[in-house]
Amino acid sequence: MKSVFLMLLLLLLSFQFVTEAQSIKVKERKEITISEAGEHFFPRFAASDSVIYFTRAYYQGIESLNLLTNELKNITSDPGSGFDYQFTDDGNKVFYRTDTFLNGKKYSDIKSLDFRTNKSELLESRKRNLSTPKILKSGDCIFKIDADITVNNKLKQTTQLNIIPQDTMLFYSDNNLILLLNGERKVFNPLGNGSYLWSSFSPDKSKILFTFMGKGTYVADLDGKILLEVGYANAPKWSPDGKWIAYMDDKDNGSTIISSDIYLLSADGKNKIQLTESKDAHEQFPEWSPSMNVLVCHTADGKIVLLSLEKKY
Fold first, then answer.
1. If residue 7 lies in a helix (H) or strand (E), which one and from where to where?
2. Cα 157 vs. chain centroid, distance in angstroms?
3. Which of 22-36, 51-65, 150-164, 299-313 has the highest mean pLDDT?
4. Residue 256 burial (CB count, 10 A)
5. How far are the Cα atoms of 109, 139, 150, 214 from residue 131, in angstroms, in the given order?
6. What element of type H or E holds 4?
7. What angle do CA 125, 174, 165 make, to 5 degrees?
8. C-alpha–C-alpha distance, residues 156 and 56, integer Å
9. pLDDT tens-digit series, residues 233-260
10. Four-CA torsion 125, 129, 130, 131, nearest 10 degrees
11. What does the buried/exposed string (b/e) look like for 214-229 if buried means 16 or more CB atoms within 10 Å of the residue's CB?
12. Residue 165: what pLDDT?
């Protein structure tokens, strides 16, 4: 009898340990004061916790704010550049797409900016149906023009069509996801044709997180097998260690956001944590800092919010 009791006690303690070991809570919620007036959206980090980047309404330009010195910089004012721009791993260079309209048609450029030299480069010019850029391990830029995968080789200063790199990455194409894996290209649509949003690889590149419009958010392996049904979870983001998924639970009345809060879900789906519960502020689009000590997001009225985190692993 004693042995049975002892076993139950050990199981209870181990369960409590696992629960506590995967606990995250908000130490401080802080709205950032930016000297330049106006609304600011979609904040994110690059290679350090000390600088955040953000854009204006309609993805107008990219700006940065040093959280230590409060220095505000204008990276670019190019229209559309604030959507899905990409940094090199060291944070020294940013690649972005900028859009212009001519006779009712959209034309796009791909540009880069080196923060060390302040040198800007035009990599692709005046193309229709141009995707946002992605960055290869080599530092080259890859993007899609219509159905063509294009690599801009920074060393040879050449552009190569339909060269599939050995890197692993995703592109959107005709309501599907295109998976580039080990030099091959394949359609990735585990739930069939439809609108796939907010797709991303886990940090170890073994799983894909995505939202399927009208159904919810899922985690799948690279063969398309569903590993986890997350449920309603918009703008999901892997944590840098791959143990958590941050997302927003937002509701609207058909035209206006009426509520939105930030949640975490453990990667195994067993531990769900609500990080914000604000009645007057609707926090949206969370992004992790590299150290995982901070989540940054914006509110519906264009304020940037830092959530300092306390982790128990």
1. helix 2-21
2. 29
3. 51-65
4. 8
5. 10, 18, 10, 24
6. helix 2-21
7. 60
8. 35
9. 999 999 999 999 999 999 988 888 889 9
10. 170
11. eeebbbbebeeeeebe
12. 62
Query: What pLDDT was estimated at residue 154?
Result: 54
Q: Which two tokens stand for residue 303?
A: 């304020």
Where does 77-195 show beta strands of DSSP type E?
86-87, 93-102, 105-114, 119-127, 134-135, 141-145, 148-153, 158-161, 169-173, 176-181, 184-188
DSSP annotation of 131 reads P
Least confident of 115-124, 127-136, 161-170, 215-224: 161-170
224 Rama class: left (phi>0) / alpha (psi -120 to 50) / beta:
left
Domain locations in the chain? 97-166
DSSP class of 133: P
What is the distance in angstroms between the CA of the first residue and the CA of the last residue of the chain?
Answer: 33
Residue 190 has which token pair? 């585990």
Decide the pairing of beta strands 134-135 and 141-145.
Answer: antiparallel
Which pair of tokens denotes residue 52?
Answer: 């955040």
Question: pTM of the full predicted structure?
Answer: 0.88
Residue 213 near residue 194 (C-beta atoms within 8 A): yes
- Give the C-alpha separation, 150 to 198, whole Å: 22
Cβ-defined contacts of 116-120 (< 8 Å, 24+): 116/92, 120/76
Tokens of 151: 């690599």
Q: Are 266 and 224 in contact (CB under 8 A)?
A: no
Nearest to 299 by CA among 265, 263, 259: 259
